[in-house]
Amino acid sequence: MKVLIVGGVAGGAGTAARLRRNDENAEIILFEKGDYISFANCGLPYYIGGTITERGNLQVQTPEGFHARFNVDVRVRQEVTAVDPAAKTVTVKNHGDGSTYTESYDKLVLSPGASPIRPQMPGMEENHIFTLRNIPDTYAIYDHIEAAKPKTAAVIGAGFIGMEMAENLAHRGLSVSIIEAAPHVMAPLDMDMAHSVHNYVRGKGLGLYLGKKSTGFTKDSVLLEDGTSVPADMVILSIGVLPETKFLAGSGVELGRRGEILVDEQLRTNVPDIYALGDAATVKNIVTGNTQVIPLAGPANKQGRIVADVICGKKAAYKGSQGTSVMKFFEQVVACTGEKEESLRAAGTPYRKTFTVSASHAGYYPGGSQMIVKLLYTPDEGKILGAQIVGGDGVDKRIDHLANAVRFGLTVYDLTEMELAYAPPFSSAKDPVNMAGYVAQNVLEGSMVPFYPEDVENLPKDAIRIDVRTPGEVEALGTVPGFVNIPLDELRQRLAEVDLTKPLYVTCQVGLRGYVAQRILNQSGAKEVHNLSGGYNLYSAYQKDLAGMADAEKKNCTPCGKQE
After folding, report:
1. pLDDT tens across 238-273, in order?
2. Any catalytic annotation for residue 508?
3. pTM of the shown model
4. Annotated active-site residue in 42, 312, 508, 560
């Protein structure tokens, strides 16, 4: 059996290695148009920032090492430019000597990856504009910083790579600004979870421009559509990728609207003996059932194993992806899995949501940090649809538990029953995942009726508003406007001050004391009690972000109202 593989990074190299383990006698040829195979895409920003110091550490395998270990014919700087399914051949351009040749196949695996989007805008030739997708891109950015010693940088696009690049440029001593056309950073997040991220970005001294599109460049700035000029001696474009599938024109391989390769569960294309995987191929969304592209390294590696097994006659299928991801931004960690509220609402999918704020480990053990967990689930049986977490230590551990819950169709009740490892340095007896399940269970069973920060301005005029934190907390941290302080430990003795016939809205710091107050009020005769989900913690993050956005607008304007 002769197998050709197009693309030598995560998916392609993984396919080749698994094929060899399955079949020692197969002829395997791996084509990579660049100079490197099997390199660590996700580690590239950390070389630029100086965390990874050795260039060789970015390469998981060299062409020579891969050939020695797996007996694969690795051909770098050789690009597949066309596919002829009728003849079962590919056309290859050798960038080393400029020659072109054809190669036959029994099976063809397509793992060409995706390329960064680089729209043409005025002034691009005046500035130093980079994208980051491969090792040469990494070296170009690193070497430019070493040689030119820029003082300012702008990152356009606040996805995972964009945020990681902003951090690492800051580590190199540059003054960094992040520009994002969407209303909030990191598309997999909802706005309510992005507030804390926005506040953290500003707290680290980085500029943040949200809901603003770039329109052009000067030699030392990025120009925005509202006239704002953002200082930038260099620019990183990180606004997404497109599948590299132009070479499939005329092949008959079916493509989607953006050029993505359409495949089935066995990762077969519509053309016999041609398979596709990785960033250029579609997958099924495990939550919605929709077909989409989810360009992540983990799924690509799994798909490589499955393609190799299918080619060798094994029963295997790729059942779908859910977009589980995690990012470190300085000391903050952001993670998500499954669907977000914005997409569920757009699709008309019914859901409930709750927020919990938990410590990363036992409160009495030093060095802990808080994490905000957002859980999305169906309003009937409580099946988990998605989760988002913003915090520090331990976020990665909790998102993995919730990712498994999404994948295997678990409910919020299953979260309450999860037996998770506990010792004071690592967790609490009631793990944050358990707590998310407990709160969601209370909502589904009706013992906790939540309201949210965005609801505060529209509360009923006759509503009674109560803050059950201590007076010291209220004085030090502030409170939601219009809320009267009745500490939880005094509530039973002060019930006479509360009109139980009116709608009651309760808040505390994170939601737990508010829930206890809600239970007291419900069982004391109150007919309608609501608890602020996530408490004042979430509300204050929301308000602080709004204030930060307003301050940024003021700084960009002269007294007469014109942009500087």
Report:
1. 999 999 999 999 999 999 999 999 999 999 999 999
2. no
3. 0.94
4. 42
